[in-house]
Amino acid sequence: TPMGDYQASRDNLGKEVGRVHPRLALQRIAFALATARARTQLRKADAIVAVSRTVAQELPGLQPNDPRVIIIPNGVDPADFPAVSRSAAREELKLPAEGTVLSFVGRVEEAKGVGALLDVVARFPDAVLLIAGGGVSIEAFRARLQTHPAGPRVRILGPMREGRRFVYAASDLFCLPSRHEGAPVTLLEAMAMGTPVATTRPWLPDALLPYASVNQDPLRMVEEGLALATKVHPGESRALVLNHFAWDRIAQTYSD
Q: Rounded to an integer, what distance in angstroms lies between the CA atom of residue 109 and that of residue 121?
């Protein structure tokens, strides 16, 4: 979303140049100008597609329930997510067959809340946290692991494409404690592998919310997510995503 992109880039720039710097002021001006341009363009549009209700609510200059706004979510390619059992996925990643596995896939940066996950893992003595991704804060995160009580139970796998399906399948819960998102594809990908998700806001189509824990407190988000994981059948979310949120279905919706 425009505001989310700005806030995330502002956080990153602040880490780079400090909290008081002319570049931050220039960034604010650039964002204001971009928002003004978007407002003008949206006034002229016959139809506006938003990938989530969150994005629809942040479109500049629009009234609530503007009839031109249509929500069409993101999707996945089923070919990227063939079925993998949890035991096979854990064997592939050389993980213990038993115990709790939490995961995060994406950029490692402050706005994504990965640091909060580290503190959460410390509250679960048998839990392992998988981090699949890179980002501006990855080295700072590695350094923090050296002194953090949960550090030995965190595995940084680096950026992954083909292998991320094993990360999802091996996990009891996929976690996204982010502050700013639009419609994260990683949530759909995790559900495509049958893994429930935990997020700080409901960045999902309504049909998928029964397979998600939503709470702005990261600890409660994970606690509720692990409780949810004992109740839902992994095949249900997988079938729902692959049948209704595959890219060919999403493309047909755009065409319609």
A: 18
